[in-house]
Amino acid sequence: MQFKPIFESDGRPVLIAGPCSAETEEQVVSTAHALKSQHISLFRAGVWKPRTRPGAFEGVGTPGLAWLERVRRETGLPVTTEVATAQHVQDCLRHHIDVLWIGARTTVNPFSVQEIADALAGTDTPVIVKNPVNPDYKLWIGAIERLYKAGIRRIAAIHRGFSTYGDCKYRNLPRWQMAIDLMQEFPDLEVICDVSHICGRRDILAETAQKAYDLHFDGLMVEVHPDPDNAWSDAAQQITPPQFSQMIAALKRRQISSDDPSYLASMDSLRRQIDELDEEIIQMIARRMKLVRDIGHAKKDKNIAIYQPERWRALAEACRQRAEKSELSHEFVALFLEAIHQEGISQQEKIINQN
Ligand code: PEP
Ligand code: MN
After folding, report:
1. Would you say residue 36 lies in a domain?
2. Average pLDDT, rounded, for the chain
3. Domain with 315 in it: what CATH number?
4. Which residue owns the Cα nearest ligand 1 atom 6?
5. Full residue range of the structural domain in which residue 273 is found
6. Per-residue pLDDT averaged across 322-348, rounded?
7. Which of 226, 250, 274 lies at the terminal end of a domain, its last residue?
8. Are 230 and 127 in a shared domain?
9. 354-to-2, 147, 258, 348 alpha-carbon distances in Å
10. Are residues 48 and 165 in the same domain?
11. Which terminus of the chain, N or C, has less C-beta within 10 A?
C-alpha cells in the first residue's frame, strides 16, 4: 500500500485538537475560535459517541455536523468527526466534513469497517483509523486495507492505546512497540498519537506527548474543552485551550540524527555495548529456560501441575522488590516477568504433554 498524507505537509507535526464531544453549538464554535491561533491542522469533535455503558451522553448526532461546518466557515479550520456506520458517512459527506475518523470500538469490527469503506468508495475523503481496543496489529492493518481497497489513499493511523483491566497509570496501555512496528512497515503512513485517550487524565498528558514526539509520531490528537471538568464525556482527560497551547509550546522536537563525528562515535560505542548486553540477556534467558525445562521433567515424573501460584507470587514479589532498588518501572518489570513466565509455562506444557 502507498499512502498520501492527510494534508500537504509543511514539515510541522499534525495537530488535531477539539472537544471529545460536540455538546452545544456555542461550546464547539468557541473552542474552535480559541484554537484557531494555535496552528492546529484539524479541529475534532465527536457527534456520535460510542460509550462503554448505556445511559452516558451518546452525542448530539447529525445536527452537530452543521456546527462543524460553521467552525470551518468562521475559522478556516478543517474539521473531523467519528463515523461508525454507512449512515454516518453519508451524513458527513452531505455536510462536507473534511476528514473522518474511525474509533477504536469500530476498528475492531470488520463488518462495520467494510460498511464504512463501501460508503466511501468513489470519494476522495481522508480517513484516520484508530487502533482497535485490543492490541491486534493485523486487525488495525486490516481496517486500513479495507479503506485502501475502496480507493481511499489519504489514510492516517491513530494510536490511542489498548484496553486493560485493573489499576494502571494509563486509561489505555500504550504498548508503544505496535505503533513503532506500524511506522516501520508503512513509512509513508502518517501515525498520530492520541495522548488524551492513552492517558485518561490530564496530569500525565504533557510527558506522554513528549514521549510521542521522541518516538517520531507524525502528530498528536488532544481533547480540548473550554470547561474540561464539566465536559459531558471524558472530563478527566480534557484540557483548556490555553493549557493546550502551553503544552504544545513546551514540547521539544528532536532531530532524527546528527552528523557530528563525536556524537556518531559515542553512539557507536554505546550501541555496541547494548548489542553485547542483548546477546548476554538472550543467553541468560535461554539458560533460565533450560532450568524451567528440567523442572518440567521433574513435574511430569511426579504428575504435578505446571502452574504453581504460590511460587509465582513469591517470585514476582521478589523481583518487584529488586526492581524498586533499580531504575526500572513496575510496569516494565511486571510485563517482562509475565512474558518469561508465559514462555516457561508453554515450554513445560510441551514436556508434560509429550508421550
Ligand atoms: C474519541 O476520540 O472521543 C473516542 C471515542 O476515541 P476512541 O475511539 O479512541 O475511544
Ligand atoms: Mn473522548
Report:
1. yes
2. 94
3. 1.20.59.10
4. 103
5. 261-352
6. 88
7. 250
8. yes
9. 47, 46, 54, 10
10. yes
11. C
Residue 98 confidence (pLDDT)? 98
What single string gives the DSSP state of each residue in 87-119? Answer: HHHHHHHHTT-SEEEE-HHHHT-HHHHHHHHHH
In this predicted structure, what is the pLDDT of residue 123? 94
> What is the CA(118)–ligand 1 centre distance, in A?
22
Q: Which atom of ligand 1 is nearest to the CA of 104?
A: 8
| 51 Cβ contact list (under 8 Å, min separation 6) | 57, 58, 233
Residue 169 pLDDT greater than 90, yes or no = yes
Confidence of residue 285 (pLDDT cuts 50, 70, 90): very high
Question: Which atom of ligand 1 is the closest one to the Cα of 194?
Answer: 9
At 347, list the grid cell: 515450554
Minimal-distance CA residue to ligand 1 atom 4: 103
Q: How many domains does the chain have?
A: 2
Whether pTM > 0.85 for this model: the answer is no
In a domain, 5, yes or no: no
CA of 80 to the centre of ligand 2 (A): 13
- Domain co-membership, 173 together with 294: no
